[in-house]
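If you are new to this repository, start here. Below is one unmodified record pulled from the training split, so you can see the exact layout before writing a loader.
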Amino acid sequence: MTESLKLYTNPMSRGRIARWMLEEVGEPYEAIVMGYGESMKSPDYLKINPMGKVPSLVHEGAVVTECAAICTYLAEVFPEADLGPTAAERAAYYRWLYFAAGPVEAAITNKSAGFEVSPERRGTVGYGSYEATIETLAYAVRQHDYIAGDRFTAADVYVGSQVGWGLQFGTIEARPEFSAYWSRLSEREAYKRASALDDALVKGQ
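And here is the target side for that same chain:
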């Protein structure tokens, strides 16, 4: 039977975040690996994601793109996985999830591309400065063992992925709080399963 969840992905993309989230949810899904170039820009795929990029999640005909949205959606649609926030966690959960998807993503991407915002223009960009953004991210992960409190949630999948990749590629400095946070997350069985699946695909390319 065709799975009701389909993930369009590439193992060398942000699709790794979506796969990790799916492994945390524990529902069966079909992973459809897309190649860069013609595959992602094909007319059929552009009907799913007009951006021609991955990941895209299709659930019973509904399309969700953007990793933060995919994490949020899956937590809400599959509440039995207990990855959404409690009432007490809700503010921190949404605050830091979308902080990572907005300011953190933009600040790291711009710095990696060699784009520096001049001091007089910092008020016009959402993250202000790379330094302020990283300092705020460090503040966030110091508050609790997990981003919304004392237990793992879907927000940790996204925020943790940003921290893990930043440490791996040197776009985030290896502060003790970042290393400790990522160490906790990378020991999760769902993360290990997701990484093994994507690593195997990379080796097979």
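Two things worth knowing about this chain: Residues 177 and 199 are 27 Å apart (CA to CA). The longest strand covers residues 5-9.
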